[in-house]
Amino acid sequence: MKSLKTLIRLHKNEVDDKRRHLTQLREHDDQLAARRRQFEAQVEMERQLSGTSVDMAMAFANYIPQIKLQRNALEQARLQLVIAIRRAEEDLAQAFQELKRFELAEEERIRQEKAELARKESMMLDEVAAQRHTRQQGEGGSGEE
């Protein structure tokens, strides 16, 4: 079996790309949360200003439907982002599992190569020992009888 190093390197790059993508999605989620907080602070400021005069109260009343639309838009964006983040996390987990599968296969291949090399080396040493024993028997055996 050939080395899996190329496939491992390819899958490491894929895992890194998926991590970067997930990080970008999470940063986008943080930005969206900050926008939501900023929007809510602005709405609260407008609400407080609406209590200062009748004109401001009427303007705020006209502003309420727009507030609802913006809240819904922000909520929809957040929900889509949550779905995208979950999908990206699943993709990353799957890519990581594939990478581990290739790394384990490569480790097993290397272990088998080492075991085969050790087996061949042992056979060679056994053969050398058998030859040496045969020679010693041949040299010492003729004088003993």
Characterize this entry briefly.
Helix content is 94%, strand content 0%. The protein is an all-alpha fold and 145 residues long. It starts with a helix and ends with a helix.
Kindly state the percentage of residues in helix. Answer: over 70%
The secondary-structure class comes to mainly alpha
Rg calc? 36 Å
| Total DSSP helices | 2
Mean pLDDT: 91
Q: Could you say which overall geometry the principal axes of the C-alpha atoms support? A: rod-shaped
Sheet bearing the most strands, described?
none
- What percentage of the residues does DSSP assign to strands (E)? under 5%
Separation of the first and last Cα atoms: 54 Å
Element-level helix/strand string: HH
pLDDT under 50 segments (min length 5)?
none
Number of strands: 0
Keywords: Bacterial flagellum biogenesis, Bacterial flagellum protein export, Cell membrane, Cell projection, Chemotaxis, Cilium, Coiled coil, Flagellum, Membrane, Protein transport, Transport
Protein name: Flagellar FliJ protein
Membrane topology: Peripheral membrane protein
Main location: membrane
Task: Please give the structural blueprint.
Layout: H1 5-50, H2 54-144
Pfam families: FliJ (PF02050)
Main location: membrane
Membrane topology: Peripheral membrane protein
Plain-language structure description:
- By secondary structure, this protein is an all-alpha fold.
- It has a domain at 5-100.
- It is 94% helix and 0% strand.
- The protein has two helices and no strands.
- The chain has helices at residues 5-50, 54-144.
- Helix 1 (5-50) packs antiparallel against helix 2 (54-144).
- The longest helix has 91 residues, at 54-144.
- The protein starts with a helix and ends with a helix.
- The model has no long low-confidence stretch (mean pLDDT 91).
- Its main location: membrane.
- Residues 71-105 form a coiled coil.
- One of its GO terms (cellular component) is plasma membrane.
